[in-house]
Amino acid sequence: MMNVLLVDDEPLVLEGLRTMIRWEHYGFQVCGEASNGSEAFGLIQRLMPELVLTDIRMPVIGGLELIERSNRALKRPPKFVVLSGYDDFGYARTAMRQRVAEYLLKPVDEEEIEAILRRLGSQIQGELAAEEAHRQRQRLFASHILGRLTQGEYNEDLEQQAIRGLNLPPDAELVCVLVDGVEDYAEVERQFRVLFPEEPLRSFQDGAARIGFILPASVHSEHRLQEIGLPPSRPCGRPGTGAPSSAIVAVSGRSQGIRSIRELYLQAKELCKAKRCEGKAGLFYFRDRNTASPRQDALLNEKLGCLLDCTVDGDTAKLDSALDEVFDALLGRRIGLAAAKAHVADLEFRLCRVVLEMEGAPDAYMQRVQGNCGRLSEVRDYPALKRYIHGLCREADSLLSELRLKNENNTMFHVIRHVDREYRSKLQLQDLAKQYHLNATYLGQLFKKQTGKTFNEYLHDKRIDEAKRLLKRTQMKITEIALQVGYPNADYFISKFKSKTGVLPSAYKQESERKRAE
């Protein structure tokens, strides 16, 4: 229903307008009444009606001044229909200058006003539909840009796209809000629209089905986020059991510029993972985490990076000392075992990704680790955690040494690794050929010999595999998934998905949900 506000200083006129017109028949409902322009302006700001019927001569503020104020002050003013008891061309001329939709003389003819409602209702609905379609396109574009930025992609062209698409100045101070453990993403987005009505929705979903929001630090406030309905901290419960909600709202620190979005996302992600490991739910701030100083956090990240580098580079002589330094940094942050294990789980993931990029088998690698060291979930104290990390890195060092020998001087390994990393972007065989100094036809032949597929087949399979993963694990819309995996045209994505899998993406998602329910 569209909202209409009635404004007149005569109570009988207000009553007549309210009762004699079949508002619902034309898609309207009366949301309020006012007896003067000042009162009406306050209601317009609060209720945001689509249509206002107003008298001209009223106490305090007249109808024409009300229209002028609304047009000047509001981003999206309502449409106005003027009801006047004065057949004065001067009033009509002023009304036309204020872009009034209709100018009617009292007494109002019922048929005449219903004809106006029919026309304006259709016009307003068309405008609202166009605005919603525009917002949806903007939201999809913003989600795509944020997905690329949070994954670490950055260049000047992407920054310019982000400035335009996210409607953010390049030096804006930003925060990232990450929501984990919710099922109704649309409801979360609706709440953020209500909490931050002055801001466009800059939302995205990550690979773990968390929904994120990028906000200017100037509009973010702790009070607003608490209105989501989550207390600062509480134990997690299982959804659907009547236990407390398991939702986590993690708020990053503040940082300046588009380039900082990935770091802000990583802060919120780290906070989500830590609180999930601790079995807590609620609203949390990165600034409050474990009372650790920024220097201690930077030191831990640096030491974890050094440990990863030593393992990947095969620098076994420094491996033990790097591990000792990681544990010193962990103890310096005074975090619990669950949070420490979350860091180790991330190290596992990064090592598995390196194994995969070097054409190894991450599953086989983790089986070797678990066979020799047990499972991370079974670790109960810090000494056991240190032994586990030592085994994790030693097994990776051994496997990566084998893979390095296998892939040495293998140009095709590097080409395929590049495609595996960049498949979301616009890849062309000719561009790869130039990059690796090969003839395009010859590279295509080598690619098929190495992979058993043509370049385009391999690229599409890679994208469709990622789309299948997103369809299974997230609540992203099909149009969003298409953009996420590298298909700007959703219709083309749907056609390609069906040709590869034999079913439409929507059917694939429904079947996955059915199997999960079983």
From TrEMBL:
Positions of post-translational 4-aspartylphosphate modification: 55
Residue span(s) of domain HTH araC/xylS-type: 413-511
This protein's GO CC annotations: cytoplasm
Compartments where found: Cytoplasm
InterPro entries, A to Z: CheY-like_superfamily (IPR011006), Homeodomain-like_sf (IPR009057), HptR (IPR051552), HTH_AraC (IPR018060), HTH_AraC-typ_CS (IPR018062), Sig_transdc_resp-reg_receiver (IPR001789), Tscrpt_reg_AraC-type_HTH (IPR020449)
Residue ranges annotated for the Response regulatory domain, each copy included: 3-121
Any one Gene Ontology BP term: phosphorelay signal transduction system
Residue ranges the record marks as coiled coil: none
MF annotations from Gene Ontology: DNA-binding transcription factor activity; sequence-specific DNA binding
Lineage of source species: Bacteria, Bacillati, Bacillota, Bacilli, Bacillales
Record's protein name: Helix-turn-helix domain-containing protein
Family matches, as CDD domains: REC_YesN-like
Keywords: Cytoplasm, DNA-binding, Phosphoprotein, Transcription, Transcription regulation, Two-component regulatory system
PROSITE patterns listed in its UniProt record: HTH_ARAC_FAMILY_1, HTH_ARAC_FAMILY_2, RESPONSE_REGULATORY
Source organism superkingdom: Bacteria
SUPFAM superfamilies from the UniProt entry: CheY-like, Homeodomain-like
